[in-house]
């Protein structure tokens, strides 16, 4: 596979769901990959699948919930790569429960992973993007970042915060040639629905697939540097949120 202008992407949450699908979609287009997740075995399997189509792909096991380590770890990965052209912040967690029944610890865990770790990942790659005067940052938000839902309070707060982070970052970095896109999918059939922090009876067969979301991310990345899609709202046409 010959891609004379091969780019380098760093993707968090790359061991499953949207992150995995995005990694494989990027690989098919000749984009080299640095893959981050705490699930080391699954992460290496995704890296191996990407290498099979001819791109460079390295797995970097990292628990983004350990906030104090995130910026330095991502900075070290960026330094090792030499350049990060694309950052996709896909890692995150779901959480259901009323605001009155949410513990302080649970609240903090959701905000740490879904919002603060994204900010720290951005800080890890931003210096090199500024040095080159180019780069694109994709933040995977949610329909819950533009619309609230009862019993999803901490999750909605984290995703509304991510939208504010994305918009502020775009305004601050536009003059430096750095583009920022927030993608807001409706419900996506990912392993998030199998976790013990989410209780839901949605029809998963009617949800978006990770591959559909990944194609939207790929489209945003492939635009000319003179253009940016700042926000994408992507919904299933089957009537499920």
Structure overview:
This is 3-oxoacyl-[acyl-carrier-protein] reductase FabG. Keywords: Oxidoreductase. It comes from Microcoleus asticus IPMA8. Its EC number is 1.1.1.100. It is a single chain. With 241 residues, the chain is α/β, with parallel strands linked by helices. The chain is 43% helix and 16% strand. The protein contains six helices and seven strands, in the order βαβαβαβαβαβαβ. It has helices spanning 17-28, 40-52, 67-81, 104-132, 153-173, 210-222; strands spanning 8-12, 32-37, 57-61, 86-89, 135-140, 178-185, 231-234. A seven-stranded parallel β-sheet has the order 3-2-1-4-5-6-7, with helices on both faces. Helix 4 (104-132) links the parallel strand 4 (86-89) and strand 5. Helix 1 (17-28) runs parallel beside helix 2 (40-52), helix 1 packs across helix 6 (210-222) and helix 3 packs parallel to helix 4. The chain is globular.
């Amino acid at each position: 596979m010959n891609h004379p202008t091969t780019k380098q992407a760093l993707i968090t949450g790359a061991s499953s769901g949207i992150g995995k699908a995005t990694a494989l979609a990027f690989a098919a287009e000749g984009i080299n990959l640095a893959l981050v997740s705490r699930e080391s075995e699954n992460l290496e399997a995704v890296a191996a699948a990407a290498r099979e189509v001819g791109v460079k792909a390295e797995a970097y096991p990292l628990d983004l919930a350990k906030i104090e380590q995130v910026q330095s770890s991502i900075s070290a990965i960026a330094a090792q790569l030499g350049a990060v052209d694309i950052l996709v912040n896909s890692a995150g967690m779901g959480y259901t429960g009323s605001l009155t029944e949410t513990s302080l610890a649970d609240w903090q865990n959701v905000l740490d992973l879904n919002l603060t770790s994204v900010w720290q990942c951005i800080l890890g790659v931003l210096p090199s993007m500024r040095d080159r005067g180019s780069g694109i940052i994709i933040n995977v938000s949610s329909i819950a970042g533009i619309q609230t839902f009862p019993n999803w309070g901490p999750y909605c707060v984290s995703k509304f915060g991510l939208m504010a982070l994305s918009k502020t970052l775009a305004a601050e970095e536009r003059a430096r040639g750095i583009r920022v896109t927030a993608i807001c999918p409706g419900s996506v059939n990912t392993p998030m629905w199998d976790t013990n922090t989410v209780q839901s009876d949605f029809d998963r067969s009617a949800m978006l697939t990770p591959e559909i979301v990944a194609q939207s991310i790929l489209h945003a990345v492939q635009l000319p540097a003179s253009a940016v899609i700042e926000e994408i709202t992507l919904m299933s046409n089957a009537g499920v949120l």
